[in-house]
Amino acid sequence: MRAKIVAIVFCLTLTIVAALVFFTYLYPHLQEPTGLEQPPAKTPRMDGDFDGVPDGVDACPETPLGEQVDPSGCEPIKGGPIDQENVLPFMFRGSELEEPSLPRYLFRGEQTRVEVSIKKTETLLFPLIRRFSLETELESPRWKFTCRPDRCSVKTDLEGLPQQVELSASRVVEEIVVKLSGTAPARAEKPEMVTILKISVEEYRPSCCDGVYSLLDHRAVVAEKPPPWLPLFVVQEELRALKRIVRDIHQQQDRFSLYALKPEEKMVLERLEEDINRLEAQLKAATRRLARGEGTLDEALYLGIKLGKTKNKLDQLCKKISQLDYYESENNEKE
Fold it and tell me: What CA–CA distance (Å, rounded) separates 171 from 179?
């Protein structure tokens, strides 16, 4: 009887040892497929800048939100910007654009109407002649202009398509109201950035300086439904406008030594530039987090609040240095 028990225990022990050896050393190798059966490795297709090109093949991984790109992920080469040597700083501009309220999102085929008002700068008597170039990418646009106190001559492009309009005034007018209605393009399958209204101004001053500058360049996203990065796109466009204003102030200082900023205002401008650069870095980080599925709309709201505060400070600085007595008092102190 004892011999049988010993035999049974010995058999069970061998069985357990054999099973351990099998599952530890032999079974894992049996589960590996052959070279022909090995499934291809999956590569991540994360798109950190939401341009439709995966990061693995994206030659420009930090494309601004909403920009159209080529297959390499970079923006296609477009026409050159306005000649920087012939751009008027804001101190010498004869016309100002009232803060317009224009859409940042339209669904495909949506009809929209916009209205902007351009007024004469109160501190300047010139220019005597103005020409406004207006452009839109809305389909079937309709324009309506009101010039006070005189009429303006209107000229469309040579092909008769009113996507581009030229507006001329033979004398100084107090206000020009531009009304535009049109339809958002319905051809794009993915979110598309469209120029709602772009206004360039040409001004002439006798025996002084003339120039062409961009008064407005408003873009919106056209899509079947609002993309998740739309709030960040709004912040990006507002940042883009603030950077143009800062560049404008620097250009004024470089071209006209008479209009130099006071030391305390230079310090304010430097701090505002730091704020803008910081916001831009935070925007890029928020965009990357959103691409990974980690971001929230609260980040866009937070950036929008900080952006609004920076914009108010920059507006106050521009209004202050636009006043002639700002520089007259500085010159009197030097004398």
Answer: 21
Structure tokens that stand for 247 in this block: 């560049």
Q: Which residues contact 233 (CB under 8 A, 6 or more apart)?
A: 65, 66, 104, 221, 227
Which pTM does this prediction carry?
A: 0.74
Residue 178 has pLDDT above 80, yes or no: yes
Residues paired with 286 in a beta bridge: none
> What gap in Å lies between CA 134 and CA 198, rounded to an integer?
6
Q: Which phi and psi angles does 245 have, rounded to 5°?
A: -65, -45
Domain assignments of the chain as residue spans, ordered by start:
81-225, 228-322
- By the 10 Å C-beta count (0-12 exposed, 13-18 middle, 19+ buried), 223 is classed as buried
Tens of pLDDT, residue by residue over 262-283, are 888 899 999 999 999 999 999 9
- The topology (CATH level 3) of 81-225 is Immunoglobulin-like (2.60.40)
Tokens at residue 121, please?
Answer: 């700068």
